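Hey,

The postdoc asked me to send both predictions to you directly instead of through the lab channel. I've kept everything plain text so nothing gets mangled by the mail client. Protein one:
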Amino acid sequence: MTVAASAQDLRPQARPAAPVPAAVELALPAAPAQRPRARPEALQLAAAPVALQATVSTRNAPASTHAVQSAGLRQRTQLAVQNAQAKRARGQRVWCVPFARDASGVQIRGDARTWWHQAAGQYHRSREPHVGAVMNFAPTKKMRRGHVAVVSRIVNSRQILISHANWTRNHVSLDMVAVDVSPRNDWSQVRLEHRPGQMTSTTYPIYGFIQPIRG
């Protein structure tokens, strides 16, 4: 789906230690080159609440845990991109569900709007983001089938990076900003980076995060 973008409500404050790749164009049969670009380390919302109560559990994990998670996620994401490229080469549509399944390892099928309920009793579900987890969007009037994306990085308690497919029609977007705009900082509502540096004006409802952990 295509979403109108706006950056009026966000102001970049700082830059990360290393550049983050922009959205990946899948029109080419070969693996896409990643263009380094500066990305704000934190984005401040004009209407953000003063008190931020939620914490992100992965921030306190040992460095070795982060390294293992990141390495495994990179490998799965590369596979997901390759599979998406192969589909494009065959003239097939690139959807968010197969990409999220390949990139996360969460083996759920069916429309994205059904994933949260399907995950009950199968995978660990959380209201907090975790690297490698699937962020499950609830359906809306314009997004009736829901949406799924994979968390690629935790920036802070209100900002993460995600990788997903078909947010821009038939394309894969890697490491795009997602910002929690919920009043309680519980990740129930988000705004997304549609293109590098451009945020959506629309707020999207979120069921939560599905981790690739059985239980």
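Protein two:
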Amino acid sequence: MVAARFRCLGEPMRLKILRALQDGGEKSVTQLVAELGATQANVSKHLKTLVEAGILARRPQGTTVYYRIAAPEIFELCEVVCDTLAAQLSTQAERLGLRVLQRRRT
């Protein structure tokens, strides 16, 4: 199950979808397609994977389906990974004598 969760998060488009839904609201496929600049088929495929993994929930309303975050703790995991990567990059940059830009938190 752990490996499946990490595999699910290993796709950049899925991370973009999570980011688009991070504010806690719901969005339809149409809204996500417009925001992400991806095709409807591609976004739908990734939404299905995220729902099956239990990371997103879906709510049909008429002919529209709305998606929302079902596992908000996923952002804590992403934060840990990002912080670890930022520290690693900072260390590498220091070794090379480069100036490091701080990561923005949102």
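Summary for protein two, as requested: Residues 73-106 form one domain.

Thanks,
C.
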